[in-house]
Amino acid sequence: MQRCSIVECPDTSAPLFEQAVSLFQLIFGLQRPFCDEAERWRSILGKQKRWLLLCAIGDGRMVGFKLGYELSDTDFYSWLGGVHPDYRRHGIATLLLATQHRWCQEHGYSAIVTKTSARWDAMLRLNCHAGFAVIGTEPDRYSGFRYILRRQLAQCASRNAPTSAA
Fold first, then answer.
1. In the chain, what are the domains?
2. Which segments of 47-91 does DSSP mark as H helices, in order?
3. Beta bridge partners of 110
4. Mean pLDDT by 10 residues, the chain (166 residues)
5. For residues 131 and 61, is the Cβ–Cβ distance under 8 A?
6. Could you give the residue ranges of the DSSP H alpha helices within the chain?
C-alpha cells in the first residue's frame, strides 16, 4: 500500500456508508444479512444529533473505518471501527483514531468514550496507548464483559498526531 487517506462519509445513503458496513461484516465475521446490518446502523445514527464516519482509503478501496456519535454536548462516543486484515500494522487504526479525536476537538467535545470487548486486545492496547483510561466494565454477551474507556481531549497533542499512514 502506497498511502492511505481519510475521508468523511457525508450521509447514510453514500456509497462509503455501505462499504463501511460491508467492511465491518468482514472484519467481525457477522452472519447477519447486509441489509439488516445497514438498517441497524441507520436506525441508531438516525436518533443521534451528530455522528461521524471516517473512512480510510488505500489502494483504491476502503481499508478501514471509524464511526461514532455525540453522547452529550461534551462527550463523543467512538462506537465502531476496524481495519481490513490485509492492511493491519500500517498505522491505519492510529490515523483513524487521531483524525476522529482532532475532529471532536474542533467540534467542541472535551472527552471521548468507547467500549471494547475483552477479546479485542489489539483495540484495548491501541486505546490505552492513546491515553484512554478504563473507567468501568459491563456485561458482554460475546466475551463475558467489555471495558468502558474514556479520554479527556485536553490531553490530546493534535499537532503531533499523524496525518497519513504508509
1. 4-160 (3.40.630.30)
2. none
3. none
4. 87 94 90 84 96 96 97 96 94 95 96 90 89 93 88 62 52
5. no
6. 15-28, 34-46, 92-106, 121-129
Q: Residue 5: what are its φ and ψ, rounded to 5°? A: -120, 155
Supply the pTM of this predicted model. 0.87
Q: Which long-range contacts (CB under 8 A, 24 or more apart) does 57-60 make?
A: 57/4, 57/5, 57/6, 57/7, 58/1, 58/2, 58/3, 58/4, 58/5, 58/87, 58/90, 58/92, 58/165, 59/1, 59/2
- Contact between 106 and 82 under an 8 Å Cβ cutoff? The reply is no
What Rg, from alpha-carbon coordinates, does the chain have? 15
Quick one: 140 exposed, middle or buried, by C-beta within 10 A (0-12, 13-18, 19+)?
middle
Q: Which residues pair with residue 70 across a beta bridge?
A: 76
